[in-house]
Amino acid sequence: MTDFFKVYRKKGFEESLHVLYNSKNREYRESEFYKTLKDRKIHLNEFYRSKDDLLKYKLIAYKLDEEYEKIIFLTDKGAELYKMILELDKILVENIDSKSEENKKKTKERKKDKKSSEVKTEIKEKVEGNELTNAEQIPTPQ
Known about the structure:
Helices cover 64% and strands 9% of the residues.
C-alpha cells in the first residue's frame, strides 16, 4: 500500500485538511481549530490520530502569532494535496453519474424494444390466425 493511502485512511486526516483548507488564510489559532472540530462533531482524537502524519509529510505546520499563540496552518503542499483529493472524488462521482445515465438510457431502450417486440408478436399471431379484420386497427408501439 502506498504512503498516501496509509495516511489517508486514518480517521481525521481528510477532515483536518478540509477544516484548514476552508478557513480564512488556511489557518487557525490552535484553540479555535479544536473548537471548530468540535462544532463540526469531529472528535479531537480523530485529529490526533493523523496529526503526526500531517506534520511528517509537511501538510500542516505550526507557528506563533504576535501574541505568541500557537497557530496551525495548512501548507502549500497540504492545500495542493487537498485539491487533488477533491479532483479525484469529482472524477469518481462523474464516472458513476455518467454510468448511471447510460444505464437508464439502455433500460429505457430495452423496455421500448420489448414492447415493440410484443406488439409485433401479437400482430403476427393475429395475422397467422386470420383474426384481423379490415375494421381492426394494427396497434403501434408507443
